[in-house]
Amino acid sequence: MSAPQPLAGLRVLDLGTRISAPFCAGILGEQGAEVIKVEDPGRGDFMRGIGPFDDGYSLWWAVEGRGRQSVTCNLRTPAGQALFRRLAEHADVVVENFRPGTLERWNIGPDDLPDRLVVTRISAFGQDGPYRDRPGLDRVGIAMGGLLHLTGEPERPPVRPGVTLSDYLTGVFAAEATVAALYERDVAGTGHGRVIDAPLYGSILRILEWTIAGHDRLGLVRGRHGNRIPTSAPMDNFACADGEYVAIAAGSDMNFSRLCDAMQRPDLVADERFATLDDRVANTDELHGMVAEWCAALEADEVERRCVDNNVPVGRAYTASDIADDEHMTARGDRVIVDDPVAGPIAQQAPYPRFDGRRPPPPRGAPELGADNAAVWRDLVGLDRAEFDAALAAGTI
User: Fold this and answer.
1) Between the CA atoms of 141, 146, 152 and 158, what dihedral angle is there, to the nearest 10 degrees?
2) Angstrom distances, CA of residue 158 to CA of 130, 202, 230
3) What is the pLDDT along the chain (397 residues), one digit of tens a residue?
4) For residue 11, what are the contacts with CB-CB under 8 A and spacing of at least 6?
5) Which of 67, 235, 345, 375 could make an S-S bridge to 363, C-beta 3.0–4.6 Å?
6) DSSP E strands: which ranges in 124-203?
């Protein structure tokens, strides 16, 4: 028998679109909350129309829309706003990522909603400040948060990370803050919600390591170093004989010694050029050249095997195919089959993390638009048949 999920009994209203706010709500859902997504009638979430597509169906939506119910409500109309306020009476959390002031214009801002609600607001630049009203998406958050300048090779233009990092990372921070606010309300006993302000650039700024302190105290403006770390070596992604790459992290004295054993080059440990971390950093090019030559003579599996046998931190640069075939991820259940109501069974990444060593159940598949209108508007909110039919006819839902 599976244990109850930590957030069971909580109800979250997801007003978001694209990624950040829906991802925040999705995390809460995968930890046990009931999530109701409120979408525009007729067209629904923007993510429903983003590829890649499987026979016209968005696989991105299949992943990011999972684990929630879908209702439709036209929040731009007084009737829709009134209906949403009735729904909010039955909720614990509202998550949104419209431009600041939008909910207030729609008469469903925090002051219009029950005081016990936690209202989690994600935006490009935050709910106040000179840039408050600027538009912005994930890439803007990565750029102005300070990460884009650090990503890529020194003499080449900045490179964005391979995923929409500020959207996802802000969603994670916002979910954590939401749980903290719920704890204060329910366990500390205040009975009151909070308004959480989570701008996209802020999550990126928060993970910049020593960048801000180094500028403040030392006048350092950190720059791009590619795959290397300027304070540690050997530390890089190395090409192997089969064209695959392995990431090797052997900066400490112990790990460097182990790497030398894996390479069958114990002489390098005693080499004065590499005797200490500072020495290795000073001679990074020469050292990396030796490691690169070793890797280039072997296939990636063999490099990985020799490193693992000698306790060197190593990992091949996995593709989606590698993830699907990996014995460790298979054993842990890191891929799950989600039963999508449109596309059928789809392999997706499993909910993360897990509690008490138990694998979380696969989430519910991403709902069709308005699939839960009757269950929510009639059974939960309490519309009678005539009210429900009238709202449908008017385009309110």
Assistant:
1) 60
2) 26, 19, 17
3) 456 688 989 999 999 999 999 999 999 999 999 999 999 998 899 999 999 999 999 999 999 999 999 999 999 999 999 999 999 999 999 999 999 999 999 999 999 999 999 999 999 999 999 999 999 999 999 999 999 999 999 999 999 999 999 999 999 999 999 999 999 999 999 999 999 999 999 999 999 999 999 999 999 999 999 999 999 999 999 999 999 999 999 999 999 999 999 999 999 999 999 999 999 999 999 999 999 999 999 999 999 999 999 999 999 999 999 999 999 999 999 999 999 999 999 999 999 999 999 998 999 999 999 999 999 999 999 999 999 999 999 999 9
4) 33, 34, 35, 36, 90, 91, 92, 93
5) 67
6) 195-199
Q: Rounded to whole angstroms, how far apart are CA atoms 35 and 98?
A: 18
| 218 in Cβ contact with 212 (< 8 Å) | no
What's the pTM?
A: 0.94
Express the helix, strand and coil content of the chain in percent, nearest 5 each.
Answer: 40, 15, 45
Residue whose entry in the numeric block shows the structure tokens 């290397």: 228
Q: Give bridge partners of residue 289 from the DSSP assignment.
A: none
Which two three-digit tokens encode residue 350?
Answer: 């499993």
Of the residues 167, 261, 340, 372, only one is catalytic, namely 167
Instruction: Quickly count helices (H) and strands (E) in the chain.
Output: 17, 13
Among 65, 16, 138, smallest CA distance to 348 is for 65
Residue with tokens 């684990």: 67
Contact residues for 308 (Cβ-Cβ < 8 A; gap 6+): 314
Residue type, 349: Q
